Amino acid sequence: MHLTSPESIKGQVTRAAGPAFEQMLVGAGASIASMPSSEIYTGLQTGVLDAANTSSGSFVSYRIYEQVTCLTKSGANALWFMYEPILMSKRTWDKLDDAQRDALMAAGKVTQDYFVGEAKGLDDKLVKAYEDAEVKVVEMSADDYKAWLDIAKAISYKNFAEKVDGGQTLIDAALAVE
Question: What is the CATH number of domain 6-176?
Answer without folding.
Answer: 3.40.190.170
